[in-house]
Amino acid sequence: MRWYNYLYVGEKAKKTSEDIIEKINAGKMQVNKFALALPFNDSDILDIIPTIVLMQKRYLDSDLVIVGIADGKSEAMDLMQDIIMECYNNTKGFDLKSYIFEGGVSS
């Protein structure tokens, strides 16, 4: 799993963002926490993934790029909208993968 250098964090998630990130990296269970990630396919823009799913070894060992974290599904959807609109406002397009990789992704 890799992380976007300028990770987007929802308002409610800001209070516990370090804890959320630490638990994702450690593969520990969290309830009602979500990661926003670049999709593995080219037809989607972003995926909203419950962090409990990220406990699976195939995700921990994958090239999944997490660009944001949120506390609750509603916050995840709002954060997704914010990310997409920021990309559009800065590039006049929806090539989010290129936009994210330009900002940098760490291992």
How would you characterize the largest beta sheet?
A: 5 strands, mixed
Mean pLDDT: 94
In helices, the fraction of residues equals 25-40%
Work out the number of β strands.
Answer: 5
Distance between the termini: 7 Å
| Count of domains | 1
Walk me through this protein's architecture:
The protein has helices at residues 17-26, 57-60, 73-91, 96-103, and strands spanning 2-9, 33-37, 47-50, 65-71, 105-106. It has 107 residues and is an alpha+beta fold. The chain has one domain (2-106). The protein has a 5-stranded mixed β-sheet, sandwiched between helices. The model has no long low-confidence stretch (mean pLDDT 94).
Q: Any key phrases for this structure?
A:
alpha+beta, 4 helices, 107 residues, 5 strands, 24% strand, five-stranded mixed sheet
Write the layout of secondary structure elements.
Elements: E1 2-9, H1 17-26, E2 33-37, E3 47-50, H2 57-60, E4 65-71, H3 73-91, H4 96-103, E5 105-106
